[in-house]
Structure formats: structure tokens, C-alpha cells
Amino acid sequence: MLKNISCFNSEIIIINYILSKFKYSKEIMNLLNKDDFFFEITKKSFLEKKIFLNFNIFNEKNIFSIFKNIIEKSKKRKILKILFNISFDLLYNENIDKKIFLKVKKILNFNNKKIIYKLDYFKLLKNFLFSKNELLFSGYNKLDYLINGFQQGDLIILAGRPSIGKTSFAINIVKNLIFLKKNIIIFSLEMSTLQIFIKLLSIMTEINQNNFKLNNFSEYDLKKISFIIKNINFNNLIINDCSSLSSNDIENYLNVFSKEKKIDLILIDYIQLMKSNLNINNRVLELSEISRSLKLIAKNFSCVIIALSQLNRLVEYRVDKFPVLSDLKDSGSLEQDADIVIFLYKNNFKNINILISKNRNGPLGQIEFLFKNEYTKFNQI
């Protein structure tokens, strides 16, 4: 008899689908609530957003059939509950209470079906063209011209060999966005919070980083530091130095912080040090899962993710040291999932070239930067 008002397998499948963030996960999630689930374990999983198992493939036709099945059984349970209350009132009350008619009206209202509407593509285009959502600009005119700014939902891979200046270039972009009062989270798996903040201050004030380490400042240096601290709001910047990081950890952080304010940029230093949510003894597959998860997070939270990446050693054996997409370390999925891939490589001791090797939103190209090593500042040439 219970099978007519509940289905455990359907509830498990639909929970895994909506929490795995597939094509229609968000739409189905918005159409469900905890009362649509009969079993306590599935109801708890829905409320706590916990996945039973990770499924990689779902048949969309079956999903909509399962979703319809859950909604129909949920309606049956709600109707039974109201009918039981009406029966109880009629049996134990001498007079007919007016509330009974309200309950009957509730049953009639169940005839209104929940519908997943088809998209109006022209309306979607109109909303995009006239929306007030601003692009996120790096602060470097030539770079912004090439990539047309960072767009919400973008996953950007910033790659280069060790000690080329990946972290420094990323923090230069963070510095520019802080001046624009953007909300930023930095996840660092290599450097401490203090090291990153000192690097940021050094770039802003153009004070040699060794002066911070030795606590050796001139009077002019102290005035510059004092001016920055008084006039720049660092409350929009969150630096999290962590020894371990997964895409689930990032999502949990965003679920907390996005309630207070919208996060514009997430910086991850660096992607090869992240751990997978799955227990796979294959680093290539793990990194594929990580990159795909980061892309989904960027889309779902409408933010930009910049993930730093190492290059494999093959680039060192080339005469020109010119990086290509296949040089991305440990995975071919990085170049596939990324919207933009940026390489850093040295032209000479002072200059560093920024190479746009993949760009879904614009052309490819190359920009030359002057690198001031003493305070790791990048200036556009």
C-alpha cells in the first residue's frame, strides 16, 4: 500500500541528481521542498544537501519521469492528510465547521500543476543585453581588451613553470579589483595569509618585500603603508591558507559567505594541490573531476574562478620554451573545462609575456609586461 504514496529509489535518484548540479538540477531543486520526500533519510539528505552516491551519467528523460512520480506521490500524501483531518472533524464535531470547506478547497487546489517552462530565448538575450551585471576587469587595459573582461561563470586557468610569477600576477589582479571594491576569496595551499598580505601590500605601496621581512622601513615607506591601511577597505578580501582543499570545501565557504554578500572572484593557488571529492587512484581523473566541479561552482554562484596551474617539464625541452595547452600538468580536462587559459613565460630577465591560448569570449593574443622583481609588480608595456 505504501508503494502508492512513496518510492525510496526515486527519492534517492532525484536527490543525487539535484545535488550533483546537472543541466536541470537547479530548476528541479526549486520545484521541490522537504515535504515532497516521504522517508526521513531522504528528507534529511535534501535539507542538509548531502549526496548518497556520485552518479556521472543521468538520462534526462528518466529524471523528469522520476520527478513527476515524486510530485504525484507527494500530492497523494497531502490529500490523504487533509481527508483524514476532514473525516476526524466530521466524526467528532457535532456541527460542520467552516474550516472543513477551506480544507476541501485545498484539495481542489492540488489540480494546479507545477510546470517546468521552456526558455524564452529572446527574453534571455534581452535580459543579458540590458542587465546591470558588470564585467569583472583585471585592471590591465590590453588584457581586458583581448578577453573582453572576466565574465560571471568563467573558469580561468593561469599557468606557468615554477617561479615564473603566477601567484604574483594573480595578486596584482586582486589588487586592482580591491580598488574597485570587489569581493574576493583567496584559497592558498602554498603561502600563509600573512605572506600573501605582505605581497599585496608590497605591490600596492611599491615597497621592497625584504623591508617587510626585516622590519626596515623609511619614514616615507611608513607613510605609504599608513595611507593604504586608512584608505583601502580590506574587508572585501578573505584569505584562507589551507593545507587541504576540495571543491566541496569551496562550495561550503560560498554557501556561507554568499548569504552576506556576492562573491566576485575566487583565486586558487594552485589546482594541482587540491584533493578530489572522489576516491580515485588516478591523478588525471581526480584533476578532471576537480576542474569540472570548479566550472560548475563558477556557474552556480555567478562568480569568476582563477585557478593557478603548474606546467609539465616538456616545455623545458623546447628551444623557445613556448607553452601550449597540452603542457598543462596532470590533465587534459583543464584546457577543456576552462573558459580562458593564460600562460606566463619569460621573454627576458625583466619582461614576462602573458599568452592567451584559449578564450571562449574573444580572440587569442600576447601581451608583454614589465616585472618589477623587488615588489613583484606587473606593469603593462
Biggest pleated sheet: 9 strands, mixed
CATH class of the largest domain: Alpha Beta
What's the helix count?
14
The total strand number stands at: 9
- Spatial order of strands in the largest sheet: 3-2-4-5-1-6-7-8-9
> What's the number of domains?
2
Could you give a quick summary of the protein structure above?
The protein has 381 residues and is of the alpha/beta class.
Describe this structure in words.
There is one protein chain. With 381 residues, the protein is α/β, with parallel strands linked by helices. The chain has 2 domains: 2-117, DNAb Helicase, Chain A; 141-380, P-loop containing nucleotide triphosphate hydrolases (Rossmann fold, 3-Layer(aba) Sandwich). Helix content is 44%, strand content 15%. It is built from 14 helices and 9 strands. The protein has helices at 8-19, 25-31, 40-48, 60-92, 99-109, 121-130, 141-147, 166-179, 193-205, 209-214, 219-231, 247-257, 283-300, 333-337, and strands at residues 155-160, 184-188, 237-241, 265-269, 304-310, 340-346, 351-359, 365-372, 377-380. Strands 3-2-4-5-1-6-7-8-9 form a 9-stranded mixed beta sheet. A hairpin with a 4-residue loop joins strand 6 (340-346) and strand 7 (351-359). The longest helix has 33 residues, at 60-92.
